Structure formats: structure tokens, C-alpha cells
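user: can you give me the structure for this one chain? C-alpha cells are fine.
assistant: on it. calling the predictor now.
[tool input]
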Amino acid sequence: MCIPSGYALCYIYGGLVGSNFGWRYAFWIESILMLPLAILGFLMKPLQLKGFFPADLVTAQVPETVALGIQVTNASIGKEESLSLKAEFKDKSSNDQSKSKSATKMFDQVPSFLVDMKALHLDKVYVINVLGHIAYNFVIGAYSYWGPKACYNIYHMADADLVFGGITVVCGIVGTLAGGFVLDFMTNTLPNAFKLLSVTTFLGAAFFFGAFLCRNVNGFLVLFSIGELLVFATQGPVNYVCLHCVKPSLRPLSMVMSTVAIHVFGDVPSSPLVGVLEDSINNWRTTILILTTVLFPAAGIWFIGIFVHSVDKFEDDSENQACTIPLLQEKTGETSPSQEC
């Protein structure tokens, strides 16, 4: 729901601030508004994700080791105070060693990352979902960039930013919520999610196509609003598939790679490509109609997902009995029977 709302408020906010104060002020004000979010990102306690070893358990399992270290340190201070200078140099060298160890650990994560990436690419359900989302975002991204300008040139709207933004914020919120409710009503399964994705995207594309073919501005607004309700109903199902088709430990990576893919291959190249297309044909109606046709392949890709064998792994607890032994415990060799691989 945040994505369509953000798109819509962007039009309204940019139009109001830009026309009254200048476009530079829009960026300055936005940076100030984003500052609390950046601060919270550093201060908030990380969430404990399913499939990952709890950090509290690691610290709770090694109190004896810490206590022993303190006793040894106190004894050494009491017996050999004359070696404090030498210990200081040792501390510095140990810090350098810890930094090198941290770098080594970071590089050690690369093979694990490659294994996870391979698992994602071999997951047919995940790949189909992301490919459909890329085609979908290709259109939505270009709409968000060129939509107001296209509406102004085709229908000569005086306040295209406000009109386009107002429709998007209402239809985006209502459509997103409706998509989630409909999926729950259908019984939320992976095939049902793909059914909802393909049907809503196909119908939304049809209404968009009809809207830009319409010569009357009122007819355009009605058809375009219905189209936005339908296409934004995909927000819930597409994230549902992304989270439920992979095992718990892969959920963060699956969301990250999906986000990267839909931007790198979707909305980032679509806006300049649409600009090049418009420069070559010099007809906004035709340009937008050509862009809208990309939604039909997106619906087709998601339609294929209905027939692909899928397993919902959202409640998969198999990883909780996997090799999740803390590093400090591995060194001491103290493993409980339930944690042994």
C-alpha cells in the first residue's frame, strides 16, 4: 500500500511545492522528512527473523567463558602490574587481528550467498513471480514518470499532477487492500495468488487501453480509475508469493533480489525508453498505448505460474533443527543433542 500511496503523494506534493516555491525546495523538504527514518534505521532493535539463530541465545550460552576471562584478567593484573604496557601493545595487535578476522568472515559469507542465490534462481515459482513483476513494474514506473505529462498533452488537463495523483492515491490504497482481502477470501494459496495476479493485471491493462483510446476526458478518468484499482490489487498477492515460495531463511534475500530486479529491469529503463519512443513517433496517445501492451505479457507470465508445481514453505520449521550452532559454542565443542547436525 505504501508504494501506490507514495507514487500518488509524489505527484500532489511535487505539483504544489514546485509551483509555489520551486522544484529545489521539494527535494530539500523531502530530505528533512526522511531524516527521522534514517536515524531510526540505526537505533531500532533488529527483528528476530524465522530461520535465523537468535542473537540473545548466543550471548546466553557463553556466560562461563566471559566470567573465566574476567577472572584471568583480574589475576594477571594483580600478579603482574608491570606488564601493563606490554598488554597495551597486545591489545592493539589483537584489535588488528580482529579486524582482519572480520574481513575474513565477510568474505566467508560469499559462498553461502552464492548458494542462496542459486536456490532462488532454481525456484521456478519465484522466478516466474519476479519476471511477471518486472514486466508489470516496467509499465507502472513509466506511468509514474510520464503519466501527468501524457494526460496534459492528450486531454489538456490544467492540473494533471493533482488529478493523476488524486486518482492514484485513492485507487492505490483501495486496490491494494482489496487485493489482500480477495486473496484471503479465495483461500490464500500460491496458485490462487497467481490467478489473482494474472486476472487483475489482464483486466487492468484492458481498462487502461480503453481509457487512453477514449476521446472524452470524463470517460478516461472513469476507465483509468478502474484500471488502477485492478493493477494495484496485485501488491498483496505478488509479495505473498515472494514470501511463501521460499524457505524462511531466504525470505529477506528473496525480497531484496525481487526489489532489485523490478527496478533494474523494470521502472529504471522504462522511463527513458518511453521518452525515446515518444521522441520518435511524437504522439503521446500511441506511446502510452504501446507501453500499456506490456501489461499483457505480465499477465501471461503470472498465468503460467498457476500450473507450476508449488509448495508453501511459510511454516517450514525444518531449518530450526538444522546446523544453527553459534560460532563460540562450536569452538568450545559444547553442543546439545538437539543442535547437533
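assistant: here you go. Residues 27 and 138 are 25 Å apart (CA to CA). The first helix runs from residue 2 to 20.
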